[in-house]
Design a protein that fits this description.
single chain, disordered N terminus, D-Maltodextrin-Binding Protein, domain 2, alpha/beta, five-stranded mixed sheet
Length: about 325
């Protein structure tokens, strides 16, 4: 997994064995001793012994058992950017020096939603063309078969806000995104709800749902839990760009990634409110398969997307 280090990331002890750092990188990805052992092709006891050494080196448990399974400690979460950066720099030492994107004549196929296009692919398109003028990006529709297509080589990357299975794919965390509620100007919820809506206020008004994939995954209903039954959905979209047209003469609202909601509010003169706190933020990833892990062109594109994707607005 590759990533750029963030300012303020905790330092990695200088005396730590490099093999331990490799094991740590997989533990942070998989949150599993068994999964790490399987990915690295070593025994589970060997990973357990390494985890004990890592805990001693960092003076922190790093990985703990909870009622939801194994979870990272706060220190473990904070280490992700530093370890990703170390791994990226280490990999770059062994990367071929012959790769030149200007000589690249290739069509990259990337599965993405319209938000992924807006936030990740669009900012990288101009530098992509300047650096690889003979290459092309083909954006393909999100589908339930996309992971199988990734494994078969039909597509090269997946840009997604869904939680990845990092035991089946490789991934790079791009950013964390919050939600906003988009609605028409003058909507009663804006007059009575304040900046942040309560759950009662949120479920009181009708909703436009944005469903992901062929199965129509609704992240909002999933996070609402038992209260989801109180949410009235009057229309559902496979993408969010058409949402303002449905909201203009309605008391409905739609929940969107914050940066998309802000852009639409500005472009269409609409109102915004924060959703209830139980609608948690979500991570956005770029994923690739083992077959492309050593492909210089694919890794170049991953680095390019990560370098140019827009950071979440404060």
């Amino acid at each position: 997994m590759h990533s750029q280090a963030e300012k303020g990331s905790p330092a990695i002890p200088s005396h730590i064995d490099l093999n331990l750092l490799l094991i740590l990188s997989f533990l942070l990805q998989t949150r599993s001793v068994t999964g790490t052992a399987r990915r690295l092709g070593i025994s589970q006891p060997a990973v357990s012994r390494s985890l004990a050494q890592l805990r001693d080196a960092f003076q922190d448990p790093l990985l703990i058992r909870t009622n939801k399974g194994m979870e990272l400690t706060r220190r473990g979460e904070d280490l992700i950017p530093s370890v990703q950066s170390w791994l990226a720099h280490t990999n770059s030492l062994f990367a071929t020096q012959e790769f030149d994107p200007k000589q690249l004549n290739r069509r990259f196929r990337v599965a993405s939603t319209d938000f992924g296009v807006t936030a990740v692919l669009a900012p990288a398109l101009d530098p992509f063309h300047r650096m690889a003028p003979q290459a092309m990006l083909e954006i393909v529709q999100f589908s339930d078969a996309m992971h199988a297509r990734l494994a078969s080589g039909e597509i090269d990357l997946i840009v997604t806000g869904l939680e990845p299975d990092l035991q089946a794919t490789y991934g790079r965390l791009l950013f964390r995104e919050e939600f906003s509620c988009l609605m028409r100007k003058g909507h009663p919820a804006l007059e009575t709800g304040g900046q942040r809506l309560s759950v009662d206020q949120f479920v009181h008004w009708p909703h436009i749902a944005v469903l992901v994939g062929e199965t129509g995954f609704d992240r909002i209903n999933t996070q609402l839990g038992e209260r989801a039954a109180e949410r009235t959905i009057i229309a559902a979209l496979p993408y969010f760009q058409a949402a303002p047209s449905l909201l203009r003469d309605s008391d409905a609202m739609v929940v969107l990634p914050r940066r998309a909601a802000r852009e639409m509010a500005a472009a269409h003169d609409m109102g915004l409110a924060d959703p209830p706190p139980l609608l948690a933020s979500f991570d956005y990833w770029v994923l690739w398969h083992e077959r492309n892990r050593r492909d210089a062109a694919t890794m170049w594109l991953v680095d390019l997307l990560a370098a140019h994707c827009q950071p979440p607005e404060e």
